[in-house]
């Protein structure tokens, strides 16, 4: 098969578009024919990218991209719950080869039927961002109707879904974004949008029940003061993972695959309640551009094959 593979620790200079062995499913595994895979620039620095679950070094070359949309090509001998030819979307294990390839392996618990109203590039942009927003706001923060939530980075991949999930939960949504994205974020469902470049959010926001921090650093530091007593801050910013501050460590989480949540998200997408945002769609030949061109909204996607 054709794949984009990382040949050493580093960045884009270590990626090659080349022939690679096609994987075969064993046991409960699913082989997916990949039609699109989303771009996550921070993946070069993820721990699982370069390490085994036991803490050793993963052998190179490594295939990145752990969220995808495609069709079930084959299943392992003990696999149940999916059939050959099923259109699916979802994730695969962080510690194994990803989906920037014509085929990838996953398991039924990490995938769900693709939203019927989306093409593959749009569907590929959903799993990590939508599940992160869902798990942050609904599972961890227990967001409920009429609560006030502040979403940082509201035009980004996670932030754009978070605004829509919060609106679905009938919360009062306050968002930070650049001036060029104010109308866009408001159209997603934000009740208030703050231009973070001109207005320090802590000067106009107070007594919020939930803060979702996708930015980190000083933005997260200033967010503690806008929480009401008993309020909850949740962060996905990479700098929080190694923090020495207990409250930051407690606030940090990493998204987990969840089939049932993907099914719920599909239902909301097909009902028109939630929509994914794609910054750009790139060919496999243009993978470096897909990483280099930071999208102003949503996330970039690789079109692996036509469908």
Total of helices: 9
**DSSP, total strands:** 15
Overall pLDDT score: 97
From the structure provided, what is the oligomeric state, counting identical versus distinct chains?
A: single chain
Strand content: 25-35%
CATH homology superfamily name of the largest domain: Medium-chain alcohol dehydrogenases, catalytic domain
Q: Shape from CA axes?
A: globular
Low-confidence region ranges? none
The percentage helix is 10-25%
Please identify the top-level CATH class of the largest domain. Answer: Alpha Beta
CATH fold description of the largest domain: Quinone Oxidoreductase, Chain A, domain 1
C-alpha end-to-end distance = 17 Å
Characterize the main sheet: 7 strands, mixed
Radius of gyration: 19 Å
Structural class: alpha/beta
Which architecture name of the largest domain does CATH use?
Answer: Alpha-Beta Complex
